[in-house]
Amino acid sequence: MNVAAKSIREQIVAILGAWKMLPHLIDVTADVMVDTDLAGIDSHGISMLILYEEKLRQGKLKLQAEPRVIRENAVTALIDAGAGLGHPAAVMATRLAIEKAGACGIAAVSVTNSHHFGAAGYYAKMAAQRGFISMVTSNARTVAVLPTRASTKVFGTNPIAFAAPARRNPPFLLDMATSTVAANKVRVYEFKGKPLPDGWVLDENGHSVRDAAVARRYIWEGGKGGLTPIGGTPEMSSHKGYGLAMIAQLLGSTLAGGCFPPLTEQRGTADGPDNLGHFFLALDPKAFRPDGAFESDLDEMIDYLHAVPAIDPAEPVLVAGDPELQARERRLKEGVPITPVLADKIRGICQRCGVPFLLEQFQS
After folding, report:
1. Which of 3, 121, 149, 344 has its CA 20 to 30 A from that of 291?
2. What band does 128 get if pLDDT is binned at 50, 70 and 90?
3. How far apart, in whole angstroms, are the C-alpha atoms of residue 182 and residue 47?
């Protein structure tokens, strides 16, 4: 069924409220999750409640934690998320980076002791909408990604997002996992009963796994096999995705004192909070160029790219951020698609925490 964004937000708010998350933290988290579903990033929206319930049940997630600044100067800051969900700490970090970059031209803010924070692009877009160039990175707790040439997974999907403001056009917005695909997208394919494309997931012998249910077990169970880094195979330059995963780990987590998940498991400390780290960089174009010059040049670039002849005229050349804008326009009109499997899982969460199931068929 297709569900209105308003219903999805009400459902998220009801569940997080039943889990005793503080109301102002619920508002921030629900905003991020609903925006992500509207953007077509089904792997990071309401479907993440399945993982959050699991973390809560394991005692790893402290939903009443208030993020706080623990180290700061004119252009940098470090925020402790208190082992809470990452969304409130990430919004706080983005706002602080914007404020500091507005005063000094550049700023970097890190978050430590955090959990999953949704889609990295949400925060990069926040900064771009305020006129700042932004880069966001994070590590991820689920060890799911194979380094190039490896049979054993080591990394999370470790996202990198980059956004830049234009004047006439929407911001340039690149939001990507450093794996070939986000891990939760395999769950989405399983919910839909669709086979995976070749090269998304490999077994311990380096062979592609097409069955989404089998692939899910390779990702979330045991040490062998897993997701590929961007590129997929050494012949297709998977070392580049492997290198980007390292960059996201170093900037997103190591710099902030966050975890490196395989070592956390090796040392027997995986029962505690995830201790993920996030990194937020903001640049003011006015520190380098006259006011509006950067944005005007970016408009020209975007216009030029949109006009490049396409192989198939029915599928024109896009710029990063275009697919999300198209999805948002469509889903605001038609609702967000919720598969029967996901609906059943959300219904189960509702039953366990004692709130009504609020997802209803979209009415235009």
Report:
1. 121
2. very high
3. 13
Sorted by sequence, the CB contacts under 8 Å of residue 246 that are 6+ apart come out as: none
User: Exposed, middle or buried: residue 11 (CB in 10 Å: 0-12, 13-18, 19+)?
Assistant: buried
State the CATH class of domain 181-227: alpha beta
Residues 6+ apart with CB under 8 A from 36: 44, 45, 118, 119, 122
What count of other Cβ atoms lies within 10 Å of the Cβ of residue 237?
A: 15
pLDDT, tens digit (0-9, with 9 covering 90-100), for 147-195: 999 999 999 999 999 999 999 999 999 999 999 988 878 988 998 899 9
Identify whether the C-beta of residue 56 lies closer than 8 Å to the C-beta of residue 69.
no
Element at 155 (helix H, strand E):
none
**CATH 1.10.1530.10 for domain 1-63+332-364:** yes
Tokens of 99: 């404020």
Element of type H or E holding 330 = helix 322-334
Give how far the C-alpha of residue 245 lies from the chain's centroid of Cα atoms, to the nearest Å.
Answer: 14
CA distances from 116 to 48, 142, 332 (A): 9, 10, 26
Strands 106-114 and 76-80: parallel
Listed in sequence order, the residues at least 6 apart from 341 whose beta carbon sits closer than 8 Å to its beta carbon are: 190, 191
Give the pLDDT confidence score for residue 257 in this predicted structure.
Answer: 96
41 vs 32: CA distance, rounded Å: 11
pTM tops 0.85:
yes
